[in-house]
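Reviewers of the previous submission asked for a worked example of the structure-prediction workflow described in the proposal, so we include one complete record here. The input consisted solely of the amino acid sequence. No template or homolog information was supplied to the procedure at any stage.
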Amino acid sequence: MLRKLLTVAAAGLVGAAAFGAAGDAEAQKVRWKMQSAFGSKLSIIGEVAARYEDIVKDMSAGDLTIKFYEPGALVPTLQGFDAVEAGSVDAMWGTAGYHTGKYPALSFFTAVPFGPRAGELLAWMGYGGGDELYNELYAKHDLIGLHCAAIAPETSGWFRSRLNSIDDLKGKKMRFFGLGAKVMTKLGVSTQLLAGADIYPALERGVIDATEFSMPSIDLDLGFYQIAKFNYFPGWHQQSSIGELLMKKSAFEGLSGQHQAIIRHACDASITWSFVRSEAFQFEAMLKLKEKGVESVRWSDDDLAKLSKAWDEVVAEENAADPIFAKFHASYQAFRDKYAIWKEHGYLD
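From that input alone, the workflow returned the following structure tokens.
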């Protein structure tokens, strides 16, 4: 009888230990919810966000999950900053430029009118002091952001009729993003920022007369060609665009070092994947759009000069009005000034 009792007790201890180990392992698993500003089926910028979930899961062998949610599933798309700060959602996938209502200077971390291509912009962020400013600003709100996507130039906009010149924009209502919207306002355009999913219905109902959003493959997915047949180039307002993963800083720092590294490296992989994909798909998309009756039009040099002049005015005004903007712009411009010798000697144009 004593032997039986000892055997049962030992078995109980082994079982308890096994249950405890399983419980500890389960406790170490991290399950986050991440809402994207871009739908999972949207070419490149949506695809890369959905793909990010799989990369993180594979790299962590399932111990870390950052589950993708479609736009608006958890919180309104353009309220991501507040939602992450409040802890309403673990992470938001989008762009820093969506938070310019709070800090216009955050546009520098998405796209800049007449700005650099992706390589130069990322170089400033990573090695020219940009990320130090970015992190310092976000830390005030217990936030941390990582650059997790990059795409090549966007188009300049979709219009229902051909424009004789940039002056024809005066009086039009147009969806526009970031600092480029301030330039358009200088030219007499009434601008508003709409999330991607809200643009087509607004264009269809006449709430807006024209729109810009992204590059040909992405705009093709959104169906703008069904309403507007004139697609203007080049994307002077976004020669490159950078995507962002926004998280609560204290929550991120509470993760294990391994999980933090996985999140960071998954972002690095996503930048490469999205940029290469963005360069590869545009010519085919433009050919498809041409078959659908879309005419690709390039702004004249005179029109681009007017846009550039308006941008210079915006920079001067923002620098004077906003110390944070002035600080960010000074860092950005100082890097570009130094980078110029490499750009002028290393590249063909």
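The first helix runs from residue 2 to 28. We consider this example representative of the routine output the project will generate in years two and three.
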